[in-house]
Design a protein that fits this description.
With about 150 residues, the protein is α+β, with helices and mostly antiparallel strands. The chain contains five helices and four strands; from the N terminus they run αααβαββαβ. It folds into two domains: about 40 residues, Arc Repressor Mutant, subunit A, CATH 1.10.10; about 80 residues, 2-Layer Sandwich (Alpha-Beta Plaits), CATH 3.30.70. Helices cover about 35% and strands about 15% of the residues.
């Protein structure tokens, strides 16, 4: 599917998504056009889905971070998805196994805002909230081990 050079490119752009084609080419000892073609191929295959900035939530005063588990029935999924997609503080939603069907990653300025969300989510079913104290491993991509 992908080769070692593609893996190296993915490692580089996950570290710095703003790297120029020229810098990537230098790092891999390949030509600029070869890197451009590889990037295009990775995008066309859906491996590269986009480029995003990593934002420091604390600098935005979003100091209240939590994971909220929600137990919803399958017939509520579409309504639930529509609801949470409208809330910018929901950073991620995963369908999971276990007691709860959904796991939300959220960020708020103050605990009362989180409490308000949890109260609204309870119309879908039982919830469980876990507050984040610290994040020793920041969100990151998948990095290939290059041999």
């Amino acid at each position: 599917m992908i080769d070692e050079n593609d893996e190296k490119i993915l490692n580089l752009i996950q570290t710095d998504g703003r790297l120029s084609v020229k810098r990537i080419a230098q790092a891999l000892s390949l030509s600029g056009p070869a890197i451009s073609q590889r990037l295009t191929n990775l995008k066309n295959k859906g491996i590269i889905k986009g480029y995003r900035a990593e934002i420091d939530m604390n600098k935005l005063e979003l100091n209240v971070r939590a994971f909220v588990q929600v137990d919803i029935s399958p017939n509520q999924k579409n309504q639930f998805y529509s609801f949470i997609k409208q809330i910018p503080n929901v950073l991620e939603c995963d369908v999971v196994t276990g007691t709860y069907a959904m796991l939300l990653k959220v960020a708020y300025e103050i605990p009362e805002e989180l409490d308000d969300l949890v109260n609204k989510l309870q119309r879908f079913g039982k919830t469980n909230t876990m507050m984040v104290f610290s994040t020793p491993v920041r969100p990151r991509g998948f990095f290939f081990e290059i041999h």
